[in-house]
């Protein structure tokens, strides 16, 4: 009899645990959305579009640095010559050389600003293009693997949301009642 009672108690506890875990697992899979994370920085660095842009940007910056470097050398040489000659030049020649130097300095400043603006424009275009490509790929992969939403480990934040999780219309309906 004692053996039967022990067996009954063990069977009852095991059955209760089985039912409880089954209920909990059903609640978990039904109530919890499937979440994933994407390392956006890695996408930028390792994707074909990212590699192509980084190579192009590096080359572009190097070319612009060469141009600026030549212009800086010209300005430096003009300044050195001006400083050497300004004591022996007459006032008219000194003013003329000073104006030439000022013009070159202004030209250098403008080139720098133009190059910086150009780089910012290219970066913005790249950010837009890679974000568009990443979002498209994230959507495809998310739908294939059944993720409800995907967040980025860095900047852009939420990258994909299963439309079935959007309760905006229900909230709007409640707000309007």
Write a concise synopsis of the structure shown.
This protein is mainly alpha-helical and 177 residues long.
Would you give an account of this structure?
The chain is mostly helical. It has 2 domains: 32 residues; 144 residues, no CATH class. It contains 5 helices and 3 strands, in the order αβαααββα. α2 packs across α3. The protein is elongated and about 85 Å long. The chain starts with a helix and ends with a helix. The relative contact order is 0.12. The N terminus is likely disordered.
Major pleated sheet: 3 strands, mixed
Structural class designation: mainly alpha
* SSE string: HEHHHEEH
Taking all residues together, what is the mean pLDDT? 79
Lateral arrangement of strands in the main beta sheet: 1-2-3
Q: What share of residues are in beta strands?
A: 5-15%
The helicity comes to over 70%
Q: What is the gyration radius calculated from CA atoms? A: 34 Å
Tally of contiguous helical segments: 5
Supply database-style keywords.
2 domains; about 5% strand; 3 strands; 3-stranded mixed beta sheet
Give the topology.
Blueprint: H1 2-31, E1 35-38, H2 40-46, H3 48-85, H4 91-145, E2 149-152, E3 158-161, H5 168-176
